[in-house]
């Protein structure tokens, strides 16, 4: 236990409550995130010995899944909420890893509703530098350029925090791929998860992201959570299920949220078993 930072008695109690001894080894929890109740309720229902905690506006459910420690985090929707919830999760639980999961809209015409994308990378697709245009010349989002790509490169934390693309932890990616044959509701593929506080319904704009960012899906949390996890050096992966896909007329299906939660729980379990 000495490897954990113990600034207060409250923090120590929280750590002790969420770390489980399994095969004579102290096992830190995996935090699994979902923005909304439809992306977290099923997982909460699968936990044993559940304790609910609230920090500010963010709720966490501590428990075990098949004997291993899991914390479910309802991040709320959007980039800022996801960043705040991720910071709270790391500070309070010192997790072994973080999985951000939930529903997403498709960008790749080859993907269908219920397909799952393992985020080999996640990227902030909401940061731009616009071209210079005079008043009256209008605006065209398809001509905007990625922001932050003109900043000087160095190794400071401040510059690192401005990166737009984040790689999945290799061990988490292996754990996620290892169980894909068990998923029967669609295909499981590696891809790019695009995140921003925007809900894109324009097919030309969706094509722009797919062509220029190689996005498989879009949503509003993963890249933000990945950014915080990277600054804390906590292993991270995003896992997203297509709930709809405008590029091939794939209609929204509300049952996709439960499918992704089941997969994320099994990824967490496989990761914990493989690394303890």
TrEMBL record:
InterPro entries: Nucleoside_phosphorylase_d, Nucleoside_phosphorylase_sf
The keyword Signal is assigned to this record: yes
Residues covered by the Nucleoside phosphorylase domain: 30-248
Gene Ontology biological process terms, A to Z: L-methionine salvage from S-adenosylmethionine; nucleoside metabolic process
Matches recorded under Pfam families: PNP_UDP_1
Example of a GO MF term: methylthioadenosine nucleosidase activity
Signal peptide: 1-23
Record's keyword terms, sorted: Signal
Cross-referenced Gene3D superfamilies: Nucleoside phosphorylase domain
GO cellular component: cytosol
Membrane-spanning segments: none
PANTHER family: 5'-METHYLTHIOADENOSINE/S-ADENOSYLHOMOCYSTEINE NUCLEOSIDASE, 5'-METHYLTHIOADENOSINE_S-ADENOSYLHOMOCYSTEINE NUCLEOSIDASE
UniProt-recorded name of the protein: Nucleoside phosphorylase domain-containing protein
């Amino acid at each position: 236990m000495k490897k954990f930072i113990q600034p207060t008695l409250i923090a120590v109690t929280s750590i002790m409550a969420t770390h489980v001894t399994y095969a004579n080894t102290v096992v830190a929890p995996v935090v699994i995130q979902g923005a909304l109740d439809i992306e977290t309720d099923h997982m909460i229902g699968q936990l044993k010995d559940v304790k609910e905690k609230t920090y500010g506006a963010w709720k966490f459910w501590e428990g075990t899944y098949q004997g291993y420690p899991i914390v479910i985090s309802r991040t709320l929707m959007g980039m800022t909420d996801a960043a705040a919830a991720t910071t709270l999760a790391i500070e309070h639980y010192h997790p072994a890893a973080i999985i951000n999961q939930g529903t997403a809209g498709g960008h790749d015409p080859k993907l269908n509703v219920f397909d799952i994308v393992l985020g080999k990378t996640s990227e902030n697709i909401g940061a731009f530098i616009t071209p210079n245009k005079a008043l009256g010349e209008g605006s065209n989002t398809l001509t905007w350029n990625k922001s932050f790509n003109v900043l000087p490169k160095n190794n400071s934390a401040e510059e690192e925090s401005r990166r737009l693309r984040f790689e999945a932890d290799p061990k988490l990616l292996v754990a996620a791929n290892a169980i894909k044959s068990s998923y029967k509701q669609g295909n499981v593929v590696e891809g790019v998860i695009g995140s921003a506080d925007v809900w894109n319904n324009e097919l030309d704009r969706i094509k722009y992201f797919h062509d220029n960012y190689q996005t498989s899906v879009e949503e509003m949390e993963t890249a933000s959570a990945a950014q915080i996890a990277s600054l804390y050096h906590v292993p991270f992966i995003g896992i997203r299920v297509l709930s709809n896909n405008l590029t091939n007329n794939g209609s929204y299906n509300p049952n996709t949220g439960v499918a992704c939660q089941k997969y994320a729980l099994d990824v967490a379990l496989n990761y914990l078993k493989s690394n303890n």
